[in-house]
Amino acid sequence: MSDLGALTVIFDLDGTLVDSEPNYYEASRQTLAEHGVPDFTWEDHESYVGISTRETVTMWRERYGLRASAAELLAATDRRYLDLARTRTRAYPEMRAFVELLAAENVPMAVASGSSPKAIGAILAGTGLDAFLRTVVSADEVPHGKPAPDVFLEAARRLGADPADCVVLEDAAPGAAAAHAAGMRCLAVPYVPAQADAPGFGTATLLLPGGQAEFTARSAYAWLRDTAR
């Protein structure tokens, strides 16, 4: 057994392990351009961060007066996103180092994400993280997505772990709230540091308000070791 005892670590994917928002933006930009909206900007995209693609395309139809159905827009955006995810998703270097550090100590790990199983699989394969993270739960597989605790509880169940022994890494306030609802500790690394004071983050065991710029594999491991004692 490692220095971490019975500890189990569960990772959110988008914005936590990998920086996938640029791919979501590019997929959105291409789809909207195809439907007569040529000037969709990153600032426009930021207003949809944290909102599911299904909800986003419905909002586009109203905002831009699009004639295409929501189903058609969703399929087109998802297809483009998957193509980009397979080749262009960047894993955060310190997060990758953290995963490798935990793997070397034989710490059980899982991914619990709001993305589809197909998207999760493509990202993990494309970044090589699938070599370490073999237990994966998508919100598509449980009754309720975050901030409900379902994905985290299912990840613990698949690993045979007690929720009290689990630590979740999250970048979004609804995810931090979901970890708390699951009875798990949470290390929160906000994707948008300006949102670090969002109520959901108030439940985190450790909040790094500076986000990824503040996260290091070594300090996170040391914190885990201290919490395991």
Automatic annotation (TrEMBL):
A Pfam family per the record: Hydrolase
GO MF annotations in UniProt: hydrolase activity
Hydrolase among keywords: yes
Keywords: Hydrolase
Keyword set includes Hydrolase: yes
InterPro entries, sorted: HAD-like_sf (IPR036412), HAD-SF_hydro_IA (IPR006439), HAD_sf (IPR023214), PGP-like_dom2 (IPR023198)
Name of protein: Hydrolase
Species this protein is from: Streptomyces canarius
